[in-house]
Amino acid sequence: MLIGYMRxxxxxxxxxxxxxxxxxxxxxxxxxxxxxGRATERAGLDKALDIMRDGDTLVxxxxxxxxxxxxxxxxxxxxxxxxxxGLKVLTGDIDTTTVTGRLVFGIFATLAEFERDLIxxxxxxxxxxxxxxxxxxxxxxxxxxxxxxxxxxLMADRDNAARDVAVQLGVSVSTLYAYVDAKGQxxxxxxxxxxKRGVRSKIxxxxxxxxxxxxxxxxxxxx
Length: 223
Description:
single chain; 2 domains; two-stranded antiparallel ribbon; elongated
């Protein structure tokens, strides 16, 4: 059985061109999605894959209709082949149910592996260059040294609720507790951020001002 699949990125785009091509190819059933090519959830494609059985063929107008990238397409087709399902691309002369089509797709698989290795090599080279300049890779920390010093002082005051402290510092409650405990004592991640010096000296530079009730309200250094 021939199962067709078509996709457009937005509702303003028309599926007519793909639908006509799939109809001419003799597809028994056709499924569609309206989503970006980078979308990970595609209800129409999932339905098409669910009903496919050994000996069936998935038919698409262009190869980019079914995958986010070449490695993703290669992985998807590999899974189909394990189930005995073929792939036919109408505009690319690719048909994995034939010897020639499998050969062409084998070349695609080699290119996908090369792409993965090249990206990995460039990433590692970039990280090595950054480390050589004293910079670490990855996302910037949400918790900074200044915020951590304020968090330790604020959490040490039992009248301060953790949620209020987190809002004031601009972090989540889970992030707050990842660095300090309920009494304001630093956790392991806090020690790594502050360095080896004693944490008590880290909060000595915080300024404060008294409120009407007589309590000292800590003013974070960035305010």
